[in-house]
Amino acid sequence: MKVLLHTCCGPCSIYPVQYFKENGINVYGYFYNPNIHPYTEFARRRDTLDQYAKEISLNMIFEQGYALEEFLQGVVFREANRCRFCYSIRLERAARIAKKGGFDCFSTTLLVSPYQKHELIRDIGEATGKKYDIFFKYVDFRPGYREAAIKSRELGMYRQQYCGCIYSEKDRYYRDQTRDKRVK
Question: Most exposed among 12, 65, 151, 169, judged by the fewest C-beta atoms under 10 Å?
C-alpha cells in the first residue's frame, strides 16, 4: 500500500510517518500549506520538514510557490469557517495529487494535533476522497502527539507556536488592550 501524507510541518510528521512505516505502508509526504503566514513562518516550516525528510529518507513532494492569496480570498468574510476552508483546499489538492500519482490513499498530519477539528477533517477527507475516487485513510494520530513533541525537541526542530494562518497567529499573540486597562 502507498499513502500520500499531506504534511504541514516536520514535528507533526514524526508520528504519522512512523505509524505508516511500522504498519508496512509506503509513505510519501506532500507539503501544500497556503494558509501559513507570514512567508518567513512558511519557509521555516517547509525547510524544517525538508531537512527531517532527508534525515529519515522520506520521499517528499513540495508544492511550488506560496499561494497565500488563494487562502485569503477563500476565507475573507468567512473567518468563522476558516478551518473548514483551510482543510478543504489542502485535502483536495492532496487527493488530486494522490490520484494522479497512483497512490492507494491519502491522509494528513493534521490528525496528530489535539488542537485540530478531527471530525471535520475526517468528514472533508472522506468527501474529497469520494469526489476524486481515492480512499482517505483516517487515523487518529493524537496518541503519538506528546511522544513526537518530545522527539522534535530532542532533534532541535523548529516548533511553531500557532496553527499557521494569520487568524490563529492573532489568537495566539494578540491581547486586547482595552480589556487590560483598568477604569480609573
Answer: 65
Separation of alpha carbons 158 and 43, rounded Å: 11
Alpha carbon dihedral 108, 113, 117, 119, in 10-degree steps, equals 60
Q: What share of the chain is helix, strand, coil (3-state, %, to 5)?
A: 55, 10, 30
**Phi–psi pair at 61, nearest 5 degrees:** -120, 120
Domain spans, the chain: 2-174
Can you identify the CATH homologous superfamily of domain 2-174? HUPs (3.40.50.620)
pLDDT, tens digit (0-9, with 9 covering 90-100), for 9-40: 999 999 999 999 999 999 999 999 999 999 99
Using DSSP's 3-state secondary structure scheme, residue 11 falls into helix
Q: How far apart are CA 178 and CA 183, in angstroms?
A: 10
Helix (H), strand (E) at residue 3? strand 2-6
**Hey, how many other C-beta atoms are within 10 angstroms of the C-beta on 60?**
17
SS3 assignment, position 182:
coil
Pick from 142, 108, 101: nearest CA to 125: 108
Give the CA angle between residues 69, 35, 60 to the nearest 5°: 110
